[in-house]
């Protein structure tokens, strides 16, 4: 779709093994570093794309997001990362959906305008896609962002949904973004506590583990060798192999019930402002899923509860969610928050982000 839009493809960037990580340090090719600080990771799984844009190699790069893999590296590198609504971007032709619709493709960019412009060329489901979202503005996304949104109600919280620690820099980034939105005239309402995400997270873990097991068994002709995969990948496969078809179906029912409950809660607000992650940019070598870090915690406890407890929700619910810096003058230091809107309101989210971008 990018080639059809007139883009020239430069090459392939680095990703963690099968995209199952929030850092980009695959054993096979070695780590990708944040161009802003070579001692740190650009995040993942689209860390190579974020690094390429941050380094000025390209103005934008393709990325995919199944639990935060566009937004986390964009935030770690001080860039713009939009995960579009489920069904807005084509997912084919090889698949009709990935991870029950959780995975969405788009790009990482330096500006909100670039992100909106790419959507104008790529949005729209392809024939055979399981999910289709037709919420495309009549004027297109790029022209629509020039019309400031009405004064919006913005809910915000920084407390960890599972009771863990949230890095102080990410909390500060959320507070800075809240101040910016308040200056723009939006009503920012701090929440006393985060929504209950326990059942959603558990069901999401079940779904992703089963899909991982099925996909990798097919790649390896159903005889995966332990030495062929990294520790985090093996952990997902092990978890997936112990889940029956009955339990999977039951978990998906719970997941969809939790999505309905969450969106009913969310509907009180136009936009939700949270940290993008519980952690700040990790140092190179501090992989969250190496063998020594998985001895007392499962893969999902390390990744989805410690690193991505905020970002994974929009993948489950199908909502658009966007990472952007609060200050263009210091994008890396002020980046660490995400804005999320109701499904299909990518236009609203981009318009608000453009507001922030123009005054930051």
Name of the CATH architecture: Alpha-Beta Complex
> If strands are numbered along the chain, what order do they take across the biggest sheet?
1-3-2-7-8-6-4-5
In terms of DSSP E residues, the strand content is 5-15%
Please give the largest β-sheet: 8 strands, mixed
As for the number of domains, it is: 1
Counted beta strands: 8
Q: Which topology does CATH recognise?
A: Amidase signature (AS) enzymes
What integer is the average pLDDT? 91
Radius of gyration: 19 Å
Helix content: 25-40%
Family: Belongs to the amidase family.
Protein name: Amidase
Pfam family, one: Amidase
Organism: Roseobacter ponti
Short description:
With 360 residues, this protein is an alpha+beta fold. Helix content is 35%, strand content 10%.
């Amino acid at each position: 779709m990018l080639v059809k839009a007139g883009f020239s493809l430069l090459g392939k960037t680095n990703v963690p093994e099968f995209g199952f990580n929030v850092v980009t340090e695959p054993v096979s090719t070695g780590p990708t570093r944040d161009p802003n600080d070579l001692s740190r990771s650009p995040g993942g799984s689209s860390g190579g794309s974020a690094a390429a844009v941050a380094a000025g190699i390209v103005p934008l790069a393709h990325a995919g997001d199944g639990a935060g893999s566009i937004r986390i590296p964009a935030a770690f590198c001080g860039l713009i990362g939009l995960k579009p609504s489920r069904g807005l971007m084509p997912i084919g032709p090889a698949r009709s959906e990935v991870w029950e619709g959780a995975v969405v493709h788009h790009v990482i960019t330096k500006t909100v305008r670039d992100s909106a412009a790419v959507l104008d060329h790529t949005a729209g489901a392809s024939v055979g896609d399981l999910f289709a979202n037709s919420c495309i503005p009549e004027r297109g996304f790029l022209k629509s962002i020039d019309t400031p949104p009405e004064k919006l109600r913005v809910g915000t919280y920084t407390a960890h949904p599972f009771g863990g620690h949230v890095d102080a820099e990410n909390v500060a980034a959320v507070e800075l973004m809240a101040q910016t939105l308040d200056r723009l005239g939006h009503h920012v309402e701090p929440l006393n506590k985060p929504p209950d995400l326990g059942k959603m997270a558990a069901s999401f873990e079940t779904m992703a583990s089963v899909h991982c097991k099925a996909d990798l068994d097919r790649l390896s002709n159903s005889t995966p060798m332990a030495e062929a995969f990294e520790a985090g990948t093996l952990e997902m496969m092990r978890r997936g192999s112990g889940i029956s078809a009955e339990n999977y179906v039951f978990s998906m029912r719970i997941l969809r019930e939790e999505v309905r409950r969450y969106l009913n809660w969310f509907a009180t607000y136009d936009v939700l402002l949270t940290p993008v992650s519980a952690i700040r940019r990790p140092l190179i070598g501090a992989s969250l899923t190496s063998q020594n870090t998985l001895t007392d915690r499962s893969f999902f406890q390390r990744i989805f509860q410690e690193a991505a407890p905020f970002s994974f929700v929009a993948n489950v619910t199908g909502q658009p969610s966007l990472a952007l810096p609060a200050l263009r003058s210091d994008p890396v230091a002020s980046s660490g928050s995400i804005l999320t809107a109701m499904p299909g309101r990518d236009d609203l989210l981009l318009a608000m982000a453009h507001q922030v971008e123009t005054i930051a």
